[in-house]
Amino acid sequence: MNDTATLAPPLLPFFMPASGGQRYCLLHLPPPGRPARGGIVYVHPLAEELNKSRHVAAAQARAFAAAGYSVLQIDLYGCGDSSGDFGEARWPIWHNDLHLACAWLAQRVDGPLTLWGLRLGALLALDFAGRAPLPLARLLLWQPELDGRRCIDRFLRLRLASGMLAGAEAEAPGQARAALAQGEPVEVAGYLLAPALAHAIDGVDGAALAPSAPVYWLDYQPPGQAPAPLPRLARHWRERGAAVHLAAFGDGPFWHSGELLACPQLLDATRELCRDWLADERTAP
Q1: CA distance 182 to 169
Q2: Whether the Cβ atoms of residue 133 and residue 113 lie closer than 8 Å to each other
Q3: pTM of the predicted model as reported, rounded to 2 decimal places
């Protein structure tokens, strides 16, 4: 057995009992003999973005575990390997899943609790944080979706793109939206989107949320592009008293890439942005 495998933080896959069935989880633990410095719950993105990004999230979870944190990755209801079909997923159920995940981890780990979300998972984390029953030390947002309605609009555009690639008759603009408004589910790239889920996401707007915990926010910035100005929402949050820390990465939009991207820049940028709580006091100069 090589030294890398020997020193790798332990990984525990399991199913967590929950309402409506079970939730598939991966628990990344600190190296053997090292107590956890805190807990981190990962909130995955929407639909196929979950599958596209799973390897990058796992790499970051391993890095967090190596830094001394216990990291819980949970497949929300109707997603991944958890119980239920995507068409049965609902925003309140996902809130309940996060409550369950945070409570489960808090019971087993001393130290601060961090919520880390990608894309729509970041918006869900923000929405949940405003009413979380447990104190959260911070929010880590990777390429966050910050307007629920725009997120659903982009998702519905995948339906149009899939139809064009399949040679199907062109769908009239707004047809999917009209179907949802009439209470009819719509199929998008193999996923059945329920009106109740779409309407709930439509109603979540980052501008109406006021994070009480520090926010660590990373966005994709194409290589060679001039640094982006401070996002308006970040200014808005800061004006309302939130601590917002921002950084960029240039690996590429791995959440919908046709190939698996390793994203070392994202992992490095995360480590640097979060150095105030990731640095190990035992080894820091």
Answers
A1: 22
A2: no
A3: 0.92
Q: Rounded to an integer, what distance in angstroms lies between the CA atom of residue 252 and that of residue 248?
A: 11
CA 138/CA 145 separation, integer angstroms: 18
Q: What is the pLDDT of residues 264-284, one digit of tens each?
A: 999 999 999 999 999 865 444
Helices assigned H by DSSP within the chain: 3-7, 48-66, 91-108, 120-129, 148-165, 175-181, 195-202, 232-239, 264-273, 275-278
Neighbours of 2 (CB within 10 A): 7
pLDDT confidence of residue 1 = 39
Token pair for 163: 């139809």
* Structural domains in the chain plus CATH codes: 3-146+210-278 (3.40.50.1820), 156-204 (no CATH)
- 124: its two tokens: 């869900």
Q: Is residue 253 helix, strand or coil?
A: coil
Say if strands 186-188 and 191-193 run parallel, antiparallel, or are unpaired.
antiparallel
What is the token pair recorded at 20? 């409506």
Helix, strand, coil shares of the chain, percent, nearest 5, are 40, 20, 40
**220, 248 contact by CB (below 8 A):** yes
> Residue 74 is encoded by which pair of tokens?
């949970």
For tokens 């989107």, the residue is 193
